Predict the structure.
Amino acid sequence: MNTQVKTAPIEVSQVEHRNTGMPLDLSVVHAVQVNTQASQRRAASLPGRRAVKADAQSAWLLKAVTCIDLTTLNGDDTEGRVRRLCAKAAQPVRQDLLDALGMGDRGITTGAVCVYHRFVAAAVDALAGTGIPVAAVSTGFPAGLSPHSTKLAEIEASVADGAQEIDIVITREHVLTGNWQALYDEMRDYRAACGDAHVKAILATGDLKTLRNVAKASMVCMMAGADFIKTSTGKESVNATLPVSLTMVRAIRQYREMTGHKVGYKPAGGVSKAKDVLTYFALMKEELGHDWLQPDMFRIGASSLLGDIERQLEHRVTGAYSAAQRHPIG
């Protein structure tokens, strides 16, 4: 079956966005308010608002592939697994499916590969010539409770090994105790240690208790120079949710209105189904606009998501759903 996708918004923007930050403005932080019930109602309305089918759905799912940070962060990771993951990142969708969809010559890859520091050098080697960046989790991931000097040394080591993106974890205690100066200073140090590498601030929102805390932490991290704000490590009991995402993207919108700087967004943990990612695209489009539909401003931290997307694309081509093991990740 040759199902041509006529319009597929999958171009990867080459524009570099760096958020230079600003001095900590506690008046802005203390003024943050979040209507939890209204946020929950708004989030609940999203899944049914932007239904896309047929060719349009295939186009957006291919777009989603380019926004995935293909991730392995397990205690039993090996170099072999990481290299297989990198091979999947470079060819995320089977060539026969891309050909059937009329997209075989588009060079579709994932947005990045995300690994522990130990595997950064191997991933950089495996991805050489693909243009796919390596993202390293850092700063005592996932708990973020290592000594500050150790966290900075870990960032510097990953950058030295070739990581172009660093996903740091904040100290949740600073948020839970309202010590915004400490959070700001910590984030500024991380930003400086990253140098030219982009820094994603993981808020671990499942540990922050309230949407107001999420909003305040988002604002402080952006003031301190985070290029992205990210929901979760994937290791908390609650990870990315739509109410949390709505809260964070509205903080991004407020920050841009204040400073003119654009900050990216990355939901991570719990985004495992193709239908979920379409809902997140609707959220980004409605709240932030077209610029946040590109992989330089929107990433999804995921492992199993890619397999489900590939299954949906095969269904579009063949009319039948395949077994999950036909779409290995790494």
